[in-house]
Amino acid sequence: LHAVLPMLLCVLAPVAGLGVDPSLLINVFKDFSPGADFKGVSQVQGFHDESRAYLFQGSSRSVRVPEETAQRMLQKLRGKSEFTVAVTLKQELLNSGVILSIHHAEQRFLELESSGQKSEVRLHFQAKGQQTHTEIFPYTLADNQWHKLSVAISASHVTLYVDCNRIYERVVSVPVMDIPEDTSLWIGQRNSAHGLFKGVMQDVQILVMPQGYITQCPDLNRTCPTCNDFHGLVQKIMELQDILAKTSSKLSLAEERMNGLDNCYCERTCSVKGVTYREDQAWTDGCKNCTCSNGTVQCETIVCPPLECPDGSVPAYVAGECCKNCQPMCLFTGQELVEGDRRAVHHPSGLCLLYEFKHLQLTVDFSVCPKGHDFCAEGNTCMEHSDCLNLEAGASCSCKEGFRPLRSDNAYCEDIDECAEGKHYCRENTMCVNTPGSFMCICHTGYIRIDDYSCTEHDECVSEQHNCDENALCFNTVGGHSCSCKPGYTGNGTICRALCDGLCLNGGSCVSPNTCMCTQGFTGKRCETDIDECSEGFVECDSRATCVNLPGWYHCECRDGYHDNGMFSANGESCEDIDECKAGRSTCANDTVCFNLDGGYDCRCPHGHNCTGDCIHDNKVKHNGQIWVLDNDRCSVCSCQMGQVMCRRMVCDCENPTVDLFCCPECDPRLSSQCLHQNGLLTYASGDTWTENCQQCQCLQGEVDCWPLSCPPADCDFTLVPEGECCAHCVSDPCQAHSVRNDITKTCEDEHGITRFSGSSWLKHGTECTLCQCKNGHICCSVDPMCL
């Protein structure tokens, strides 16, 4: 142990001295300076002063690395499956933008994106089959704070680090970096129109190594064991010493027992084909001379001496003997025949004549050659492990599978020892055992069989010591197991989600293959249809309100000329008339008198006056009958009618070639104006809207904009958002509520008699894991399972 201690003591290399081979580093801002030459980019103070930092702002910029520089950078990445993307950044609040994008046409080979709207980090890369794989990591980077971000990829393994903390580690498809020559490299955007990053970036790097994150966080590069590691090593050494002492004791006991056997004599015999042979006894087995030695049969192939035969005879095999003997010979059509040989000759007449050399005479059978004749049944020279084959003119021998011939006619064959010759397929934790004509893979003691060729310590699938999803199949492997999702489900096996054709829309969840469970307010096979509660008669609003259908719900909105009195009743009963005259909201000109009406007003001309009927709008006079477009909304048209201003949205006529596509996006037919749904399987035309993850999204000329879904007001103290829904519901039990409208006048008294204000929390006395809260005079306590 004392000899081991010095080996474990070492000194950590200085962090500042950490270097990277230049051939493995793509330092974007070192080789490319997007300063004054690029609109919307300026050099600013960074997280540190050791490298340049750039501020990306505005929506009219095109930061693309020049082609020659880009190709020099990308050459280091081509064909690699291990690399790290690292960047130090400060992203504007709620901004959604691309940090770095390497793409060719529609193929995204590598793209890193941060979505502030959805609080996600997205990694896009090219996988096998030219498929773009997207891995989404829920995390908020767009918070106007500095962060160190790195994504490390090693074949099918991806790890996300933020501020030197490992946040996610996943198994993904293997990236394919077969990057074409004319591939473009963009910084701070996907292209000139999409994915504009807003904020500051510094140290944008691609390192062709899986541990590239150590350039940001050198402390993660531990080349020496920590104190905890050292303690573990010492414990392991002590355990090994204990095992060594016990093993030595057992060996000593075994040695004593073996010494007691020295006075015994045990003769070991050999049993072959039912015959028992004693020690050193020899015998001939076909073409082998065998000996019984210490209970083991040892055989050697018989070596036949060279044979010189007199004229008229040739060497030939004789039944029952291994080596050739001189046999009388007959020449027939240039061929040497010995006793018993047959030859078939096809006559031009179509007959087949069968010649046979027998008793030193050549005989011929003038009948047609026998077809299907069983020569093997008449007697053959094929011995054990050799099969007799019927040919046209006689029998022939062929060694069985797993055997090889001992002589040229295949009559005698020997077993091939696949184990000794390395011709077996036995894998880990097995021992190859030769068998006649084949081999077996025997599991080592304590291991169980997986298949014919491999074994493992134990079956994790049968013992349920696996992490496969309930909708996955478990396959036991050497040293572990693998998981594969069942048909109809998708995922990596540890997590399997039901697969629905086209996926579920509007917040619906796929509960089983091709079955969507819709959130409240939606219906359809894919939850694609919003239930219009207004048109289907589910709602009856007050006469002073109108029903407005919204994605997933509705509400009764006060009509023009009315406003809510603060009671916010669901059916609009709380709507009351606005006195536009008193509130100064009328548009009557100075020559008329404003007269309030229920739900509106009237501009009346005093008796005896000649009134113009003009209107006052935005402190400007608009003449009676005048029509204009609002300065701050080019899509709204207003007119002055007898002192009253009437405004409406522009009517969209998609047949009109001069239609304003900004106001009428639904009239935009261009493919470039279409948008791809977040799931990557659906496309939307410009102007289309949909709901996704409690956000209402709209496609506008190729750009997707999403915002929080509008929810009906919940006029109560305690609210709860049910699972699978987006909007809060009122609940009566304060302990079930997710949100509380705290009233500081409603206090609680804890177990010590201390007064607690609503909204405060404390640990219950005598416990470490029970947290209590005061909710408007109600005490709610719960146990934190992560604390136990």
From TrEMBL:
* VWFC domain segment(s): 268-327, 613-668, 673-731
Which PANTHER family does the UniProt entry name for this protein?
Answer: NEL HOMOLOG, PROTEIN KINASE C-BINDING PROTEIN NELL2
Gene3D superfamilies linked to this entry: 2.60.120.200, 6.20.200.20, Complement Module, domain 1 (2.10.70.10), Laminin (2.10.25.10)
| TM region positions | none
Alphabetically ordered keywords of this record: Calcium, Disulfide bond, EGF-like domain, Glycoprotein, Repeat, Signal
Q: Which residues form the EGF-like domain?
A: 372-409, 415-456, 457-497, 498-528, 530-576, 577-612
Q: What's the protein name?
A: Neural EGFL like 2
Signal peptide extent: 1-17
Q: Where is the Laminin G domain?
A: 52-224
Quote the cellular component terms of the Gene Ontology held in the record: cytoplasm; extracellular space
Q: List the disulfide bonds.
A: C500-C510, C518-C527
Top-rank lineage group of the source organism: Eukaryota
Q: Name one GO molecular function term.
A: heparin binding
